[in-house]
Amino acid sequence: NDTAMEIIDYVNPESRLCWFPWGYDLYQFVWKQDKLLLPHTYDYWLRSNSIQGSGIPIFVKKFISNIKRKFFTQKDKRFDVFPRIDYCSTIVPTEYPIVKSLNGFKAKEVRFNYGSMERIVSRMKNISEMQNHIFVGNSNTMSSNHVDAFYKIAELTESRQKVIVPLSYGNTNNYRRFVIEKGKYPFGRNFEPICEYILPVQYIELISSCGTAIFNQVRQQALGTILILSWLGSCIYLNKVNPIYEHFNNIGVNVYDFSNTQNLKSIEPDEIL
pTM of the prediction? Predict the structure, then answer.
């Protein structure tokens, strides 16, 4: 971000720098919205951008933005910073080729461990018996592609299955309202949005009741929640483009391609013992 780039200006040129991209600081620069967002969510993004501000249609905004960038915008400072970076540790190794595509980037790949499952699972006391609830996404962010997931889930699930959707942190209240409105239509009383912040223990208790978990993100996101759900024995569905999907397949963790599935599986607890 801008602050980090300003700090780098003051770092001794002989010092070695390592970048730990977590997601938002990477994908907004390498993939455009039409790649990150699936059709229903992308349509919402287009409409929200054309409505907000002066009401100027999105295609006019794009034209103005291109003119400003071509004639008035200063050089992007990131391209001066990338050559300064010596090492880079992405969240999963399959993201490194994406980072490597950035102009001027030449950092060596290194691995960094943010923690261990042991620290997380030590909190898992008195967890619920796993049920057939469905967990969708991890936050109030458009990159979760919630509504696109809802359409497919509605085609594949029984009417009595509860759909749990955490929306406590992330983008705007407008997007949250959009997701809730679209979720209530197909699922009715079985739709359960989580709009308030809850304690980690409560969060683990909540997700432990979900035998199926769907993460419709194109980009790497929600890895911590995915790891917990995998450990608990939930069936994990990911977008096949997501670098986590390829990484999990590489290390032998079973995940399913959500875009091509014809039925949602659910693992019984005794199958994972």
Answer: 0.85
